[in-house]
Design a protein that fits this description.
The protein contains 25 helices and no strands. It has 550 residues and is mainly α. It starts with a helix and ends in an 11-residue tail after the last helix.
Length: 550
């Protein structure tokens, strides 16, 4: 065994200092608030639908695509910034932004304003997980990393559950006290709920900024010096991912690159037009506004498919630029079949899980004779408990299986894909309220078991300096596959079937075979990829003699 390997083993055996657990608890609190601000839309959906005159497809778009595209795209440059700047500062700024935009959502009077506010929430929340994943990887050794990531991820389920309980109580009490809106601003209950959950984040930001920044890579025996120019990389990534600057970035790589870039852009818009024409007529707010500014009669494209087309095009631009600028990182992420199968496989889990978790409250409110407060308490509490238990136990099981086989974590992701399905079918077809609640816990727990395993697997396939970028890429799968498509599809199917959310939610199960193929491929590819991280990085041009930590 080499001296470097002995040194890394020594770091592995060291006890975790109490401060790491304290810092992790603060990160969990941030993630709780993150998902309160994101998921509260679920309990408010029916009220928004009635007040703004929108349908289920728009509600799915608002929760999914409008948030997800900007969350995913800004996660790319912010992931790069998390790899080069102070992660605690970055998270503090993001927390302030998304909390402020959540409060702004409460003053929306139309669909356009609410859409813009939710886009702002997506941009702010894009700072959280790249920073947190990178911090956790520097606070905890590899042997506990999946567990620590699972504990952090529990904030997702706690926040999602708490949001329903808080939202239900606020809406019921506000509407009871002010049936015609409050006398000062005329705010309805759903608007007051947005404001009530947005303001506390501004206070939490003052606590978060006090966290100590760990030395990057030190816990793995690979201390990495700070980047003397951290914002250069951020601006470069921003320049390559936001149209129309993407054309300039492509032109800098040559005429051929520009031609391909323009062709992909036009192809994405053409595909969006075709899908819009096949599914529905008309155009979206954003597309119509663009046509008005340009003075052109543009072909019909709805906001759902416009933003999705821009999202996929922007990801292509970023990956193309990454390949040229940082070939080792490109090869260990986009160039790695093991990495892609892992993150896309988990994306199919998210496709179904996001749909069920978002539409659960609107479905229950339409089917069962319960108040919002009661619905929020039982559904939110059960969802939080199930998700928390599932993600923690799934993380522990992933670490346990990983010690026995290098593909052990992938088995947990596969379990999270398949095990919820029979219970979800019963949940969204029963007319028995207690059974619906019990199955909500079961489905949430089983689906949640995959998250820590998938996150740790993606982190294990890259070098320490690449973790922020790898996290951003991981969240591309969960957002552009899971969040941007799953809830919208369920809402669209529901809207086409007179508001039948049972048909909408269960329609998302079609993605299961795709997930199985991806994860079975990952089971075959990940063990070898884990064992050859350093060799592949060096072969791709990584300077120096590096080591990786799983």
């Amino acid at each position: 065994m080499s001296d470097d390997t002995n040194d890394q083993a020594g770091h592995e055996d060291q006890p975790v200092p109490p401060y790491s657990w304290y810092a992790l608890s603060v990160l969990v609190l941030i993630y709780v608030l993150n998902f309160i601000d994101r998921q509260i839309l679920s309990i408010l959906a029916n009220d928004i639908k009635a007040d703004l005159g929108v349908d289920d497809a728009y509600l799915g778009f608002l929760y999914g695509t409008a948030f997800a595209i900007f969350y995913a795209l800004f996660g790319i440059p912010l992931g790069k910034l998390a790899d080069s700047w102070k992660r605690v500062r970055l998270m503090t700024i993001g927390l302030t932004l998304w909390s402020a935009m959540t409060a702004v959502s409460g003053f929306a009077r139309d669909a356009a304003t609410l859409t813009v506010a939710r886009i702002g929430v997506g941009v702010g929340e894009a700072t959280a997980s790249p920073s947190a994943y990178s911090l956790i990887s520097d606070w905890f050794p590899a042997r506990l990393r999946a567990t620590a990531l699972a504990i952090y991820s529990s904030g997702l389920y706690i926040g999602g559950g708490v949001s329903l309980a808080i939202g239900g109580v606020i809406v019921d009490n506000w509407n009871k006290a002010f049936p015609d809106g409050d006398p000062y601003f005329g705010l309805a209950g759903w608007q007051a709920a947005f404001i009530a959950v947005g303001v506390p984040g501004l206070l939490l930001a003052m606590w978060v900024v006090t966290l100590r920044e760990p030395v990057r890579g030190a816990i793995d025996g690979l201390p990495t010096p700070e980047d003397p120019h951290p914002f250069r990389g951020f601006m470069r990534e921003l320049y390559t991912v936001i149209p129309p600057f993407t054309f300039v970035g492509a032109a800098a790589r040559g005429a051929g690159a520009l031609a391909i870039n323009v062709a992909v852009f036009l192809g994405a818009l053409a595909a969006a037009h075709v899908v819009t024409s096949l599914l529905q007529s008309g155009e979206g707010i954003i597309w119509a506004a663009l046509g008005s500014v340009l003075g052109l009669a543009l072909p019909a494209i709805t906001d759902q498919w416009l933003l999705l087309a821009i999202g996929y095009y922007s990801v292509f631009c970023w990956a193309s630029a990454l390949r040229q600028r940082d070939y080792p990182t490109f090869m260990l992420t986009w160039g790695s079949p093991a990495f892609l199968c892992t993150i896309l496989g988990y994306g199919t889990v998210a496709f179904m899980a996001y749909s069920a978790s978002y539409w659960g409250a609107p479905y229950a409110e339409r089917v069962f004779d319960v108040s919002k407060a009661e619905l929020g308490f039982w559904l939110g509490g059960g969802g939080a408990a199930g998700g928390f238990l599932g993600v923690i136990l799934g993380g522990r099981m992933a670490d346990y299986l990983y010690t026995r086989t290098s593909g052990g974590r992938i088995w947990v992701v596969l379990f999270g894909l398949l095990s919820p399905i029979p219970f979800a079918i019963i949940q969204y077809t029963t007319d028995i309220w207690p059974l619906f609640l019990a199955l909500n816990v079961v489905v949430g727990a089983l689906a949640a078991s995959a998250l820590g395993a998938a996150a740790a697997s993606s982190q294990a396939l890259v070098l320490p300096r690449m973790r922020g970028t790898a996290t951003a890429t991981f969240f591309l799968a969960t957002t552009l596959v899971g969040l941007a498509l799953g809830p919208y599809m369920a809402g669209y199917v529901s809207a086409q079937n007179d508001g039948d959310l049972s048909a909408g939610v269960l329609s998302t199960l079609w993605i299961t075979p795709i997930g199985m193929v991806l994860l079975m491929s990952a089971l075959r590819l990940v063990p070898k990829a884990n064992a050859t991280v350093v060799e592949r990085a060096v072969a791709a041009g990584e300077p120096g003699r590096m080591q990786a930590a799983s």
